[in-house]
Amino acid sequence: MAVITCIEDLKRIYRRRVPKMFYDYAESGSYTEQTFRDNCDDFARIRLKQKVAVDMSGRSTQSQMLGQKVTMPLALSPVGMTGMQCADGEIKAARAAETFGVPYTLSTMSICSIEDVAADTQQPFWFQLYVMRDQDFLAAIIERAKKAGCSALVLTLDLQILSQRHKDLKNGLSAPPKLTLPTMLNLATKWGWGLQMLQTKRRFFGNIVGHAKGVTDASSLMSWTAEQFDLKLDWDKIAAIRDMWGGKLILKGILDEEDARRAADFGADAIIVSNHGGRQLDGALSSIRMLPAIIEAVGGKTEVYLDSGIRSGQDILKAMALGADGCMAGRAYIYGLGAMGEAGVSKALEVMHKELDISMALCGERQLSEIGRKNLLIPKGFFNAYE
C-alpha cells in the first residue's frame, strides 16, 4: 500500500483506477457545482484555536449515534452505485465500517442488495430509502430491510426530483457502463477495475432488478427509475412510512430551520443536515453554515448529524464543536474504496480518526464532549452572511 497521509492521497489513486464516468459521478455536483464546492470551502474558513500546557493523556474519540457506541462520531453515508466504484463495493465498505466501529448506510440505489450486505456482515447496518411511487415495491423493500436486521431507516427527503448533473449526462452514466467507443477506450486503461468486475455477478441495482414489477434488466430499470421518484412525498406519507417501518427513523436532507422543527416535532430519532453533497439544489448554502441554526431550531428534541463536506478529522471536529451529534461522509470513503477496495475504506477511516484525535489534543481537549465553540475561530458574519 502506498503511503497515505490524507484523504486527498486516496482520491488521487482513486482517479487513476476507476472509470471516468464513475469518478465523475462521485466527484461532481449539480449545475454550476457552487454548493458542491462550498461544502468543503466553508469548512476551510473555520479555524481551530490552539491550546498548550494541557494534559493530553487518556484521550478518547468514542461517542454514540442512535444509542450505538462508535469509535468516532461518523457514519458512512449512502452512495448510489457504490458497487461500480469497486466490485462488491457495498459489501466491502460495510465490512470496513463494521471492523472499525462506525455505522454503514446502504443506498436504495446500491449494486449489492440488502440481502448481499447482510449475508457478509455481522452487525446491523442502516438502510437509506428513496420513496418510490410503486407502493408494492416500497412496502416490500421496507420489509426486506427489517428482515435483514437493519437498525435504522434513513429516509432521504431531498430527491423527489433529480437535479441535473452535467457530467453524468455527458458520460452516459449507467450500471453497468454502456460500451460506447469513448467508454471502451477509458475502460481499457482501467484493467484492474475490469478484472474485478468480471469476477462478480453483482453489476446491476440489486435492490431493484428482480424486485420491482417489470424490471428485469438495465434498460427496463432506467425507464422505471425515471418515473418512480415520488413527487407527492409529504409529511403524511413520511408518517405512513414511519409506521410501516416501526423502528428508528433518520430524516436526511434537512437544510431549513422550519423543516428541522417539523422533523423534530414529528418524532424523528435523528435528522441529517445535508444538501445531498451539492448534487441537488445548486446555490443552496453549505451544510456547515446551516448547522447551528438547525441545532437551535430543534432544541435538543432529536440528534443532529452533519453530511456534505466531511473530508477530514478536522472537519468532524469542527462540526462537533458547533454542536453536531455526529457526522456522515460519503466521498471520503468512496475515494478509499475505489483506490484500494476494503483496505482503502479502512485507511480512509484510520486517516480521519487519527486527524480527529491529534487535532482534538492540540486544541487542549481529551474528550469530544468537552469541545465547543471555544475551540473555534469563526469569520465574522459567517453564519448570518445571507438574509
Question: Unreliable runs, pLDDT <50, ≥5 residues?
Answer: none
User: What Rg is obtained from the alpha carbons, in whole angstroms?
Assistant: 20 Å
| β-sheet strand percentage | 5-15%
Helix and strand composition category: alpha/beta
Terminal CA distance reads 48 Å
- The run of helices and strands is HHHEEEEHHEHEHEHHHHHEHEHEHEHE
Largest sheet: 8 strands, parallel
Q: Determine the mean pLDDT.
A: 95
Shape: globular
Number of strands: 12
Give me the side-by-side strand order of the main sheet. 4-11-10-9-8-7-6-5
Question: How would you describe this protein?
Answer:
By secondary structure, the chain is of the alpha/beta class. Helix content is 44%, strand content 11%. It contains 16 helices and twelve strands. The chain has helices spanning 7-17, 20-26, 34-45, 82-85, 89-100, 114-119, 135-147, 166-171, 181-187, 191-198, 218-228, 235-245, 257-266, 287-298, 313-321, 331-362; strands at residues 47-48, 63-65, 68-70, 74-76, 105-106, 126-129, 152-156, 249-254, 270-273, 303-307, 326-329, 376-377. The strands form three sheets. The protein has an eight-stranded parallel β-sheet with strand order 4-11-10-9-8-7-6-5. The protein has a two-stranded antiparallel sheet with strand order 1-12. Helix 13 (257-266) links the parallel strand 8 (249-254) and strand 9. The chain is globular and about 60 Å long.
